[in-house]
Amino acid sequence: MINILSKYMSDFTLINEDEQRAISESLQIDEYKKGKCLLRQGELSAVKCYFVLKGCVRQFFIDESGKEVTSNFFTEEQAIPIINEQTQGDLSKYSLVCVEDCILVVGDIVSEKTMFDKYPQLETMIRKMMEINLGEMQEQFGEFINSSPEERYESVLRKRPQLIDRVPQHQLASYLGITPESLSRIKKRINKNKS
């Protein structure tokens, strides 16, 4: 697991191996069971961030009609962004729940600032990682609003195929903005066309 973090430090910084080891040893890495709620919609926003070493975390919200709407899934080597400092004390607009047993790096603003003071290149690394994440999210959103449900599903097949078998189908359908029945029909049509 630590190899994943070392890879990012090597790719995005000039931090040497001894410093990488010291950083890795000082990180908080926690294990969470499937179903563990990391953050609940309507509760005070915790100022935490996570980096997924293993597992899958679902981001969702309950809309005005009481329906769960899945807005994202975070899997290995993805950061779950920190709540902005300016929103401290605000109520969370979404929930984060472990879809699988997870191993996560857990960060908070205080420990993050301490690490940045000690290893300034870490801040650059985090910024670059967040720029990549933001770019991917913008691309996904743009693609999502300009595509049909079938095209959205095909995009998941191409870009995030692991989600197909790892998350419940009703959650995947919600993520795609369709009903589970529509997802089932799309899957049948695509499988038929492949035959």
From TrEMBL:
Q: Which UniProt keywords apply?
A: Activator
**Cyclic nucleotide-binding domain residues:** 31-106
Which Pfam families is this protein grouped with? cNMP_binding (PF00027)
Per the record, the coiled-coil ranges are none
Going by the entry's taxonomy, the superkingdom of the source organism is recorded as Bacteria
Q: Know the name of this protein?
A: Crp/Fnr family transcriptional regulator
Which species does this protein come from? Ureibacillus aquaedulcis
